[in-house]
Amino acid sequence: MPMLDYWNSRIERAPLDELREIQARKLRQLVDTVYRSSQFYRKRFKEAGVKPEDIKTLDDVTKLPFTFKKDLRDNYPTNMFCVPLNQVVRFHVSSGTTGKPTVVGYTRGDIDCWTTSLARALTACGLGRGDVIQVSYGYGLFTGGLGLHYGAEEIGASVIPMGVGNTERQIELMQDLHATAIACTPSYLLHMNEVAKKMGISIKDETDLKVAILGAEPWSLETRKRIEDTMGIKAYDIYGTSELSGPLFTECKEQNGIHVWADHFLLEVVDKNGDPVKEGQRGELAVTTLSKEALPLIRYRVGDITILNNEECECGRTHPRIMRILGRADDMLIIRGINVFPSQIESVLMTIPEVGEHFQIIADRSGELDELTVRVEVTKAAFSDKLADLMKLEKKIEYELHKVLNLSTKVELVETGTLPRSQGKSQKVIDKRKI
Ligand code: DLL
Asked: One MF term in GO for this entry (predicted)?
């Protein structure tokens, strides 16, 4: 069967005006549908004093109320669904850290749209027929594994449905089946690289790996550079959340922002009061799903902090980009009144050659004062040095962190292999003030 050529499909490079027309038409349809089919949205619209006929242009989207993760939890499991349950062909469930999990339902059309979005994304990363993609995200209730699996099959690639864990076997199969790409969390790929080294295998020289599709957790540009240099691959950022379907969007070969398919999603970036930020300013992402059927979301406050870029990309795609996710609004630590994102700390650490890839951030309180400790693994070579050198290194890291954070931190150096490794999303922050 001939495969769809996703790069040559007209929509990838459709003029912005045309994309906006599609968005306006779909937004009107969406508002009509949810008003008719969902008690939840009808009530919300009434509270906001808005009716479907008030939504005529794209700018009218700001008249609509926001939706929050809490709404999904409060309506557990399926009260926000907009189709009868017999049209739902799949559920995914994300376990939140607090309270009830969120359940997302998919119609056949939702699965097709998700698959197509990922097929477009993987095409943008230069993958296609002939590639062998090792999917090392969790399969099951988590969306990463199945989402990438379907997307990879759609572009005609061969899929190795590995899932997470069993790291030595992952490396053996990567070699034996000649994987050209791997999809997993950046922290898991770093762990895999360490395990490969212990097995005496160089991923750079002794595998066919050329691309990694990394996401599901924040990671810095500096970490990307390390991954690319040490493993001899191109590492692309992939983004999505379970509520929006799962992984959906990636960077293109330019590696300068993540393309969001405008024919299916309408983006806004807002401040904490919900007002739009100025163009090019950082804020929280709010997404309206224009094609989702089972669980459409209107102005969904994702919680992630990013910058929207509407400029046309060098790759030729006209779809807007979101710039690297700085983290979740609720991951931000406030230390003695100063806002600190874990990703800022990661960026600093990864520029220091003696520092390994793993670190942990601990926020605590001593008396009335907040304290921030950063535990840092140092490379084997640096650790075997003299105590005086280690102390010098500690001071150097503290100095570099202070330059960026404008805040004093305490740095503790630990030996390689001491900090916990993760196979899925890594937990880099321990906030003891909350315990
Ligand atoms: O993590 C879906 C996914 C799977 C994305 C595989 C990419 C690859 P959730 O478990 O609902 O869904 O978590 C979504 O993870 O709101 C972000 O805070 C974070 N996140 C996801 N991708 C990135 C990324 C999946 N590329 C939450 N950079 C999101 C930074 C990311 N954070």
From this structure: phenylacetate-CoA ligase activity
Residue 217 alpha carbon to ligand 1 centre in Å: 5
The mean pLDDT values, 10 residues at a time, for the chain of 435 residues are: 77 96 98 97 98 98 97 96 98 78 97 98 97 97 97 98 97 98 96 96 98 96 96 98 98 98 98 95 97 98 96 96 92 91 95 95 92 95 84 96 95 94 91 84
- Residue 242 Cβ < 6 Å to ligand 1: yes
Q: Give the C-alpha separation, 221 to 225, whole Å.
A: 6
In short, whether 217's Cβ falls inside 6 Å of ligand 1 is yes
Same domain, 310 and 343: no
238 CA distance to ligand 1 middle (Å)? 8
pTM of the model: 0.94
Q: Which domain holds residue 185?
A: 1-329
Domain CATH code at residue 239: 3.40.50.12780
302 lines ligand 1 (CB under 6 A): yes
DSSP assignments along 38-107, one per residue: -HHHHHHHHHHT--GGG--SGGGGGGSPPB-HHHHHHTTTTTT-SS-GGG--EEEEE--SSSS-EEEEE-
Domain count, the chain: 2
Say whether both 365 and 281 belong to one domain.
Answer: no
Q: Are residues 301 and 358 in the same domain?
A: no
- The pLDDT value given to residue 165: 93
Q: How far is the CA of 100 from the centre of ligand 1 (A)?
A: 19
- Candidates 73, 125, 239: which one to mutate for ligand 1, based on the most atoms within 8 Å of Cβ? 239
